[in-house]
Request: fold
Amino acid sequence: MENKQTIILGIETSCDETAASVVRNGREILSNVVSSQIESHKRFGGVVPEIASRHHVEQITYIFEEALREANVTMEDIDAIAVTEGPGLVGALLIGVNAAKALAFAHDKPLIGVHHIAGHIYANHIVEELTFPLLTLVVSGGHTELVYMEEHGSFQVIGETRDDAVGEAYDKVARTLGLPYPGGPHVDKLAHEGEPTIDLPRAWLEADSYDFSFSGLKSAVINTLHNAKQKGIELPVPDVAASFQESVIEVLVTKTMKAAEEKQVNRILLAGGVAANKGLRQRISEACTQKGLTLTIPPLSLCTDNAAMIAAAGTILFHNGKRSGDRLNGEPGLILK
Reply:
């Protein structure tokens, strides 16, 4: 596969980034253009779906034209168009899907629907060619999953969140602490300035479960702050952040290492927006070194939503013969399989 000159145009609009990218052979980024909407959503403390959709409509044509220009290619050079099919915000997804369908129809190009999480996983393929079997810890605003892979394009979800995703928990705790949106990076930064002096729960669930739960931890942080306020005690915000992050990372890393041992894998991937968290990157790196496992983590630019990862995953699907056709639709609850 790697010897073929396959050029894929990727489009990603699942949430609040309008992105397009041109990738050659699934690993070589020729362009990766992202228009972020953070400033528009910041005043609301989170993503407003209607506003996100409107921004996508305004930006999508300019973004994919810019991606082609930066890559110095035309639509004639493109072998196929890969687009995020789901999961995500339905209005946002539909903008990207319909733009991709229009491009595919106008230029007579194959159309490939890509699962958003598969994209995050394949961001690692851009960094280093994947070897199997492997295990991916997916951590983002909407997802916390452990995904086992035996080969390209084969996904087995062996653990997932039962309530809040880890990124969602970070944002809610950040809001409670009075930190700006998006809260995750601010909590991570403060955690390195404080000490984990506050006793917070770890949700291990059943002994044989690889599932996650962060709702109770989020509530414990809120209750701890509320109780301290009632008693006239002011808890140091960096210590609260450090204690929260310590609880999160301990559970994530411990369950990942346990699953890696059971599945007998020697390669671990980290994927998703929360993969940018410095504390998590450091701890999982230390754990993998201790156990002799190979760890791959994307650079920060490929952790958050982008279209290069969609093009990378789309390249695998393209060579596996997957074509979506004109019946492709946005699927907000799309299952990874």
About this structure: The mean pLDDT is 95. The longest helix spans residues 237-263. The radius of gyration is 20 Å. The first strand starts at residue 7 and ends at 12.
